[in-house]
What does this fold into?
Amino acid sequence: MARRGHEMPTPGAPSFVQELNISHRQGNNVILQAKVRGNPGRDVRFEWTGDTYNQQAAWQSLKNRMNKNVSPNGVIQLTIENATRNDSGTFRVVVTNMYGPASSECHVAI
It folds into this structure.
């Protein structure tokens, strides 16, 4: 039963309320953020296509410095710790639930 003033979420595929973008920089860290809705629960993953020549090695280094946070209200944050020029590229967040996927991307230049 829904509380007064609160609607029950309608089941459906994920959709972005806020597209992926650079939320802010904090020292050498870069924080990307998006907001998604969709019910029931969702799987969130990030992809990266780098501007660097050796993408595989750069991706391995980058993955070790990425921290993902997904809040219950749908805010998705990716923190890239100690970001370097080699981390520049296109970041894509893919959100999937039983009704389908949705994705959003942004380019990051460091």
